[in-house]
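Students often ask why inverse folding is considered easier than folding. One informal answer: many sequences map to the same fold, so there is more than one right answer. In these notes we will look at a single instance of the problem. The structure comes first.
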């Protein structure tokens, strides 16, 4: 059973960096899958943020690319999202997920974590 679990602060000050960790069990992040971050702002749809596939390459949404970085720790089987210079518009529920390839639907999701950007 593949499980993903997000963790990180629930409140971030404006202009700071949002950092979230996704811990994976039941599969290796170096296996043949894409490991992804998504978010859903209040009252809006799901938004793709970026991927770090099994190769270790990274792909980002063009709208967020200038502020986003995704990295991984293969020893701990974890991957991390960092979003810089956050504003209240970055308030959302953030999810990590696994999918077979870029653009495919995810087959496993974390439970999601609420992040609020506010002073």
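Output (designed amino acids):
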């Amino acid at each position: 059973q593949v499980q993903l679990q997000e963790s990180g602060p629930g409140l971030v000050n404006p202009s700071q960096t949002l950092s979230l960790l996704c811990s994976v069990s039941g599969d290796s992040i170096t296996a043949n899958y894409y490991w992804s971050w998504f978010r859903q702002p209040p009252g809006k749809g799901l938004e793709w943020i970026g991927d770090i596939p099994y190769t270790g390459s990274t792909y980002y949404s063009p709208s967020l690319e200038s502020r986003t970085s995704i990295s991984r720790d293969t020893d701990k089987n974890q991957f991390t999202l960092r979003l810089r210079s956050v504003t209240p518009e970055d308030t959302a529920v953030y999810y990590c997920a696994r999918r077979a390839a870029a653009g495919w639907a995810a087959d496993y999701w974390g439970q999601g974590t609420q992040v609020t950007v506010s002073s």
